[in-house]
């Protein structure tokens, strides 16, 4: 009654190989960018100023961020695991273009389960008598790629007896995805513990050197698979988060990197000149990054925001309205977008949202398999995610990689929502 299978497509979905390669080629640039933002207090402060006035969740994260900076950072090794997500926008002439949906800098999931989907789709193709096509599927093992980042961070932390802590939710539906990464660590003789914020509140402590201990066990790396939405926090959990952030342990991610992944930051990055300021001397990286941006617009108070709000109200089907939330199912589209924006157009509340051009991919046919649901053919669109892993020690990047990919596919009647939200399913790209 409680065990279920992760939903998946019956068949792999086609992905244009040029766009697939483009997504891989820009991943190291995005790693650099996120890391640069996380170290740029002035940029974060300036960018999030309007948001934190009206969004309490971002404001609380920001308060921890400033408090920890004022106390002085105890952490010197930084591990980033992110996933940059894209859809293939169909231009007027029908040529698809790679457009970024967002970058997830905390708890980016499904790297574990998707390490198994190639085998599933390979098998299905063979059963259908398509062995040649089966051999065309690319190998993909983000579990290992993510784990290698954690291993390296654990080594640099430099304590043989210290453990890696996975910070997990109260009710954990996606445990097997995490186990895939965890097992890679056990295989390399690194101990892993799984704890909730509540456990950290009860068992966690810092010593004089701000080393983190859980019930007497030193923690080298804290890997967050929790803590990215308001419902993850009560007062105790906020205190636990503060304790973790103050510690010397490698947080994946640290709170600055979580803030770097907000939708407001994404929108500000699209302003002319911003990427150049954040990545001086990296003109080619800047060009590769910018090529993936869709139109993004600020709804800050003032003339610019007024114009944007009016434009969206007049033509809501061209846009997506996004609050500062993660996890799928939060964005507004079409008529609902128009109604909400009309209600808040003259109120500072509008600054808790950003506006984005709606990406319009070409639908394709597939079957979505989900436990207890009838099998039916659907018109679908796919979203490609590339996992990025990087490590900085002090000021020096010591690892910067792309660590595999994730393809998620959903029926076109759903405008929004990922796999965890029960909308998208796991897929495998078939390059064409
Ligand atoms: P979340 O943090 O909730 O995952 P996203 O920005 O990834 O927020 O949006 C959730 C989903 O909404 C995406 O997976 C995608 O299906 C859809 N979506 C988001 N932005 C756009 C867009 N600009 N155009 C079309 N669909 C979008
Ligand atoms: Mg998303």
From TrEMBL:
PANTHER family: GLUTATHIONE SYNTHETASE (PTHR11130)
GO CC annotation terms, alphabetical: cytosol
Record organism: Podiceps cristatus
Catalyzed reactions per annotation: gamma-L-glutamyl-(2S)-2-aminobutanoate + glycine + ATP = ophthalmate + ADP + phosphate + H(+); gamma-L-glutamyl-L-cysteine + glycine + ATP = glutathione + ADP + phosphate + H(+)
Protein name: Glutathione synthetase
Record: residues binding Mg(2+): 102, 104, 326
Function: Catalyzes the production of glutathione from gamma-glutamylcysteine and glycine in an ATP-dependent manner. Glutathione (gamma-glutamylcysteinylglycine, GSH) is the most abundant intracellular thiol in living aerobic cells and is required for numerous processes including the protection of cells against oxidative damage, amino acid transport, the detoxification of foreign compounds, the maintenance of protein sulfhydryl groups in a reduced state and acts as a cofactor for a number of enzymes. Participates in ophthalmate biosynthesis in hepatocytes.
Organism placement in taxonomy: Eukaryota, Metazoa, Chordata, Craniata, Vertebrata
Enzyme Commission no: 6.3.2.3
